[in-house]
Write a structure and sequence with these properties.
alpha+beta, single chain, 3-stranded antiparallel β-sheet, about 120 residues, globular
């Protein structure tokens, strides 16, 4: 894998997540990384995040095996928006097996997931 904005160095798979996380923090991007096994779920998460973050630039990077969804500084995903995109009931805890990783910190409730850059105690 070639890390963005770091030249053309190739990194082993074990280091790829660390490099990607470092780049995301440097660019102040946060958000989920969804396993590409369920394409419908990944698409629904991306669409719901776009809906829940209307004033933010949402970047969707589909790498086949995973989909990285990034938003500058703060990314919100609500249960209501995800259910609307999926067309069925969905508990946010059901997203956990598909969540390969994420950038930033994560605050989770039954109604929403919020990825953010700075600590919010």
């Amino acid at each position: 894998m070639t890390a963005p904005d770091t030249g053309t160095h190739t990194y082993a798979d074990a280091d790829a997540a660390a490099v990607t996380a470092a780049v995301a923090v440097a660019e102040k991007l946060v958000g989920p990384v969804i396993r590409g096994i369920d394409g419908d779920l990944a698409e629904a998460v991306a669409a719901a995040i776009e809906r829940d973050n209307p004033d933010a630039e949402v970047v969707v990077d589909d790498q086949g095996g995973y989909v990285r969804i990034s938003v500058p500084r703060r990314c919100v995903l609500t249960r209501a928006s995800l259910e609307e995109e999926l067309g069925r009931a969905f508990r946010l805890s059901e997203l956990e097996p598909a969540l390969a990783a994420f950038a930033g910190r994560l605050k989770q409730t039954e109604e929403q997931l919020v990825w953010y850059l700075e600590r919010q105690d």
